[in-house]
Amino acid sequence: MRILVNDQELDVRLEQERTVGEVVTGLGRWLSEAGLRVVDLAADGTEVSLGNDDDRTLPVERVSELRVTAVSRGEHELSALTTLVEWLDLLQRNLMQRTPETLADVLSELPHLRSTIRGLVHTMMRNEGDSSAQSALDDIASRTASGEQLSEAACETAIQKVESLRNLAVSRIRELWRPRAEAQATTRALQSELPKLAEVAVLLQTGEDREAMGRIVRFTELTEKILRVVGSELPEAGSLNSALDELMRAFADQDSVLIGDILEYDVVPAATELVDYLAESASYDRVESSPERPMEHSQRDVVRRSTPG
Predict the structure, then answer these.
(1) Most buried of 16, 101, 111, 230, CB within 10 angstroms?
(2) 47, burial (CB in 10 Å: exposed 0-12, middle 13-18, buried 19+)
(3) Contact by Cβ (8 Å): 89, 169
(4) Mean per-residue pLDDT, 73-101
(5) What integer is the mean pLDDT of 178-184?
(6) Other CB atoms within 10 A of residue 226 CB
């Protein structure tokens, strides 16, 4: 059996594999080590689904050629998020127009998008993030499926949650599409926030808790973004990650004294070291300038529609 991955024939010899499912499982492990994942399969020109028992157990001797399409994790995530944004746009329009019949049809697609939503929230929001948007989608899906007419208040709440989730997805799409530009812009933003962060301890001591918390939240969002884009495995990122974990625990304990100490002695020095490193132009060589394949028209359209001005 000939095996082709992205139209390139592999020089492999099947040993213990007896079915297409076993072959693809082995290929999947090998491709995963290279940062790729299987997205499409075809056996002798016919599409194969591993979710189908007949396809998965198809004997290898009955297949002359197995074609595999594999993409990078970034490409796969980019495609999944673009689909999610398009679905959220459709859902939002139906919620705004109060069209229960078509709304039920749109929400019937939610089960196919759950893993993308969970992955998005986990990636973009520290400590698993806020599941309120997911819960809101599940709630309206359940109520719509039972034939319940959504109230005006329920629709407005759902629209807000959908918009919040959409903004999260578009932000992640930008990170995947233009990581170098996003890294540079975020580094500049961090540079401007560092002096403000150094004042947080004083703000907490003088009762300006709201202002202090606002600065911390802003800084935390920026640091999490830069670590997503450039990679948290950077040596300069390790100490900052640890400091942020300590900061989150102090937040949970509502210990303003400890928050101030962690910021002054751990977070600010670690963040300064990382920003100084990233500010050097050579530092961005680690960051891909674009996905391996050109962005599709639908993906460019999603980003452009969401760009202010």
Answers:
(1) 230
(2) exposed
(3) no
(4) 89
(5) 85
(6) 26
Same domain, yes or no: 80 and 133: yes
Q: What is the pLDDT of residue 87?
A: 95
Instruction: Check whether residue 162 and residue 19 sit in a common domain.
Output: no
Residues 155 and 189 in one domain: no
Query: The tokens of 143 are what?
Result: 């109520």
Largest CA distance in the chain: 77
Look at the chain and report how many structural domains it folds into.
3
Residue type, 275: V
d(CA 294, CA 9): 23
- Same-domain pairing of 172 and 298: yes
Closest among 120, 162, 119, 156 to 138, alpha carbons compared:
162
Same domain? 144 vs 134 = yes
Question: How confident is residue 232, by pLDDT bands cut at 50, 70 and 90?
Answer: low
Give residue 61's domain range. Answer: 2-72
Both 62 and 105 in one domain: the answer is no
Q: Which residues contact 27 (CB under 8 A, 6 or more apart)?
A: 3, 5, 38, 68
